[in-house]
Amino acid sequence: MSSKPVVLTGIFHETNGLPKLFQDELEKHFTVIPEDHYAANPENADSQIVAILPWFAKPVVTEEMVKRMPKLVIVASISAGYNHLDVPMLKSHNIRISNTPNVLNDATAEQAVTLMLAAARNTVVGVKIAMGAAQPELNINFHGRQFSGSTVGIVGMGRIGMAVAKRAAAFDCKILYHNRSQRSDEASVGATYFKDLNEMLPLCDFICVVVALTAETRHLFKYEQFSLMKKTAIFCNVSRGDTVDQDGLLKALNENKIHMAALDVTSPEPLPRDHALLKCSNCIIVPHWGSATEKTRLGMCQMAIENTLQALKGDKELTSEVFN
Amino acid sequence: MSSKPVVLTGIFHETNGLPKLFQDELEKHFTVIPEDHYAANPENADSQIVAILPWFAKPVVTEEMVKRMPKLVIVASISAGYNHLDVPMLKSHNIRISNTPNVLNDATAEQAVTLMLAAARNTVVGVKIAMGAAQPELNINFHGRQFSGSTVGIVGMGRIGMAVAKRAAAFDCKILYHNRSQRSDEASVGATYFKDLNEMLPLCDFICVVVALTAETRHLFKYEQFSLMKKTAIFCNVSRGDTVDQDGLLKALNENKIHMAALDVTSPEPLPRDHALLKCSNCIIVPHWGSATEKTRLGMCQMAIENTLQALKGDKELTSEVFN
């Protein structure tokens, strides 16, 4: 075995595990033991592992595992969220924890704008018409909604929300936002604050959800909220599926309470094939790809590596340490 | 017949003619004779028609027709382009001509950004995966290209090109452009001029064609140009299909000389169903919907109406008169 630090990761798998892109990057710095190799012979590895780098919540880091790894210094998750980690347990064993926030802000904001535009301009149905088996009519009047100059309501004005606002402002959109607190820098994107979500919704042509999922934001969007929106409104969610009561959304779509929904996230993911949302012609759903660009994913991997190397050197400050 | 001015238009047809949206607007101001009604009884109408408002080049305005219409004042095309009109012939009969430029700049620029984003982020294939019949794998690593922070080359830097640049700049893109002449206001969008198209192409992650179709720009993009692009490049065309040599594009796509093409325009439109471009998995095509938003189309109709009313009043200046 080489003298590189030994780290435990998820399995390598091009569609459902660590991609080659990450493997190459990780192996520049570490001797990498993927979860399936580890499972075959854990005793040999336990004494050498100095870091665990979970990807899409795998491997699951248990207390038993931590107790078996005397040299473990850090759990460096390749993700912004860390609700898959038992933070108090890790802290009780003096294991450091890091995540990879912010590096995915641009990609996720971009995904939100992509979905709003694609829904507005009928891109998916357009490709079906222009490239489908049936010789199309001219369809010159298949009118889309226009994003440029519209009113966009952003729900959750963190860094991703601000990145959406910055982009929408260049389309001459009027920006409204709902957030726990008013932002002091709202003027930089010309955004107007609404403390009351329900007051904002009737004013929006587009509603863009980028709020973090918490107990307060779970099912923030119910049938009632969709009923408050314009009949021409396009609802976009790039946060987490559970911010939406999907039964309420389904009812609203079937009753044409809104024009369209465009979803990067659902609950669960993927939806079971018999789910009624998949039958809605006024809904587009993509896999949870908010951060899924090569550039951003590589950036996340590199940030996790950076955090790990810093922790192994004993740096007091990591690029992105999780304390709470 | 009412005392409203009598105008000749194309037929009413929701998909292939004048939509209800236009009919309602036109009938506020005019007694409207659609082409099919006119054909049934032209003699009665000829003496009354004061304006012709072509939509998607129909009705075709012939010299015979003009000679039969003694009160005809203006041909007010509901379009930016006017290559479907015989300008010298109309001028020789002292018929005024107007078009509807600029009102569609935002919608067309928006369509370009929509297509670049949808191609980059795999939106069309994403919907197929997330909503298709087959239970999808998680596909967490289906990496897209990132538009944010990329280098975008705009070919044809008129008002639509500038509107694309303004939007791309908000995604922190580096903007390059090729145009007949360098723009004095290029700094307003931070754009860098390339006199030589072939010098610009190897530098671009996205190439966005918004150039007018002329003898010089016909087949501006041949196999050679695609071969100069990055293998990861995304090529987007929202101008006219004939700016591209489609055989060259097809060869480049089949040889993966570029990552993807996203086309609002083809030659012809729609493509025949056996056209090889329709089989390319690295190409998305939508119907020619650059200006196809309700807001913009209504704006075009209203501008044509405005031009007509101004001409009927004898105004010396129309909102948008065609002189050449």
| Cα-to-Cα separation, first versus last residue of chain A | 36 Å
Strand content of chain A is 5-15%
Largest interface: A-B, 69 and 69 residues
Helix and strand run of chain A: EHEHHEHEHEHHEHEEHEHEHEEH
In CATH, the architecture of the largest domain in chain A is 3-Layer(aba) Sandwich
Question: Number of folding domains of chain A?
Answer: 2
Largest sheet of chain A: 7 strands, parallel
Would you spell out the secondary-structure blueprint of this structure?
2 copies of one chain form a homodimer.
Chain A: E1 6-9, H1 20-29, E2 31-34, H2 35-40, H3 42-46, E3 49-53, H4 63-68, E4 74-76, H5 87-92, E5 96-98, H6 105-120, H7 123-131, E6 151-155, H8 159-169, E7 174-178, E8 191-194, H9 197-200, E9 206-209, H10 223-228, E10 234-237, H11 246-254, E11 260-263, E12 283-285, H12 294-313
Helix pairs in contact in A: 1-12, 6-8
